[in-house]
Description:
By secondary structure, this protein is mainly alpha-helical.
Amino acid sequence: MKLLNFFGEKELRRQKMYIYLLLLTVAAAFGLQLWRTLYNNFAVEVVGLDGFQNGVIQSLREVPGFLALLVVYLLLLFKEHRLAALSVMLLGIGVGLTGMIPSYYGLILSTMLLSTGFHYFETLNQSLTLQYFDTQTAPLVFGRLRSLNAVSNLLVGGVVFIAVGFLSYKLLFLFCGVGVGFLGLYCFTVNPADKSVPPQKKGMVFKKKYWLYYTLTFLAGARRQVFVAFAVFLLVKNFNYSVQAITLLFVINNAINYFLSPIIGKAIVRFGERKVLSLEYISLIVVFVTYAYAESALVVGIMYVLDHIFFGFSMSIRTFFQKIGEPQDIAPSMAIGFTVNHIAAVAIPVLGGWLWLIDYKIPFLIAAGLSGVSLVATQFIRTSPS
């Protein structure tokens, strides 16, 4: 399929799966972004969490990602697309419950629910995209879906910026959770499956030839958790960012990514995964070192925006697997990939929370080191541009 066809969407709009994934992506993005926008201020202002408690919750939030391999067994009970819809419904339930139980243990419960829904949906979303679109088109689909994800996040930013002045945290979480849950329920009633797509293996798939995919995925998960667990927490705790300021950053991020994500997809097709990932990791070394030593609220805010931009480059890891993997291995390998991604992610937020109490710079310097290791590993990629 030619690139012009993709951006004209004449071909893709005939694909039921594309529309299906579009709807679920928007729902999941809206729910998760509202939770992320409000979580740190809710945790600090209402629940009163300290750095260590926040680290514990962020670690527990990654346990469902670590257990994403269970998706391959759930596929024995559910069709892959239906399980994706159920996952979005669970995400909505978790978001809706967040404000209903404003305590440390209540946050643990609601976070685990929404995290399970999010991680299982992301596993299935990646799997279905790689199954239904070829190596030239899949990066563009990932880019377009991420662009639409950004639009959803922009809507969240607008809603929160306006509503936070007259709606409580409880009502914001509840309304959003109900809306996400109902959209997931609607998609559950739709059947976008194509019987011509090769059936996926039902069970674990772990092959030696995929070692580089596993390595890059593991390092990405470890590094990413420092950003997820501590970047916004740094802005709120050390630089006194308000809900409105955090929301403004999210709006800037997503406005940029709306336009940039399709371009990243085109860059992967044109230049190949090795060059795109190398640029990401070189840039992230600079970003994380700056997080550690910056003393300006404006500078760390700019680093947060750059960090978010470079995260989009990580779609190259999945398209790299598509080029080296066997078609029937996609679903189980995406599940394994999510588990590998979260091996370190389960431990790093707790460890990082403990290290934060010693010196908040340490978690960010560790992330810079992991970015350096990723840069070295990336040089082993030997696939050519599409």
